């Protein structure tokens, strides 16, 4: 008809009246109004007359007539024409925090939105932005209030919260920085951090946790969430630079303490006779130069045909590293193997070169030391002993898993894309359990003196516990698996299961291992 001006309206009406369902409805209505109704029609009329069906239709009509458009709060009547343009924002608060932090501007004294947490309620609303000036909360002026007082008002508010804000100057569009994953190399509890601007906005994590960094806009406080956590709201964590600066303030005292401990340990060791195969030739065994904060990581799964990851066992003397290695070798000699060490001592009767040791001259050994060919080396009874990088490569090239136990300070030299080491820390149980389980056990004085062994002493137990504690404190951020060797069979089964997962499942590894 002429009065239907819009083409869209005409299309809509045409489509509606052309619907089969409309014809059916009209036909049904005509049939119901007819005098000669069939049994089916009479049954339908009876059903539609039942009270609960009438109630359902009544409810439907009531709901259908209602308007569900959002009701905006009325604009205040007392806005001064000279006042800055304001936004009236209404958010419905549930149990989750709003996800924004505020600060007092040092110059103007205004309350400013300092940070919007990614994925939080404020962020999802898209209504509040960094730099907005907060004027009122639920009609309460905030100009003369401290940020802590405002936070208290917000925490006590239930249901809808109304904000009156002066929009800040729009910043450039948020940087499209790629989200990165990092492995935390330290424990963090925001409740104990005096430096964090808002403890409630902080994210607690433990050493070894994987964090997804959502924003690095702030040089001091990053926004991150725990990988795999269903909570979409990011939390504050100290940035890498900020954490390094804090940690460096403590490093001097840690070095002094480490030196004192080492001096004490070595003085005690001097009283023993040949307790270890050799002492490592380095100025400071427990290196404290590196400040562990975060390490950027990526998910890695070994592909079929790739070389196996190097398996490194770390632990104090006497904890059972050799026993675990031996059980692995016996369990599958075609799959697991160990390196053959080098030595400068003379070959003995019935020994074969390349079987017990690689026998080389002292001069050649010293040349290889200079050329950094050894993972670790030392001197024992006037002869050199050492484990070479090439001996590890030799095992891996045969498509076998190379089992290696080393001093923990060597780990940073092994953590390369070539070896991709999976580091297992084997720690002793409590000293009470050591006394119970190691009564009849013996500790071998040196690898080259298989017949020279002594029963464990109380001093050995104390040394084992203290060394394990020191290793975990100093190098724990490099350990991917920790096994307590209380019962050898249980520890072995736990280790073997972990190594199976390394070969079949994805693990987080440093980004540099996959990008080189």
Automatic annotation (TrEMBL):
SH3 domain ranges (all copies): 177-247
UniProt domain PDZ: residue ranges: 88-169
Gene3D superfamilies associated with the record: 2.30.42.10, L27 domain (1.10.287.650), P-loop containing nucleotide triphosphate hydrolases (3.40.50.300), SH3 Domains (2.30.30.40)
Keyword flag Membrane: yes
Cellular component, GO annotation: adherens junction; membrane
Localisation per UniProt entry: Cell junction, Adherens junction; Membrane
InterPro entries registered for this protein in UniProt: GK/Ca_channel_bsu, Guanylate_kin-like_dom, Guanylate_kinase_CS, L27_C, L27_dom, L27_dom_sf, MAGUK, P-loop_NTPase
One Pfam family hit: SH3_2
Cross-referenced CDD domains: GMPK (cd00071), PDZ_MPP3-MPP4-MPP7-like (cd06799)
Keyword list, A-Z: Cell junction, Membrane, Repeat, SH3 domain
Entry's transmembrane regions: none
Record-annotated Guanylate kinase-like domain positions: 308-500
PROSITE patterns: GUANYLATE_KINASE_1, GUANYLATE_KINASE_2, L27, PDZ, SH3
Occurrences of domain L27 (ranges): 18-71
Family: Belongs to the MAGUK family.
Protein name: MAGUK p55 subfamily member 7
UniProt gene name: LOC107657298
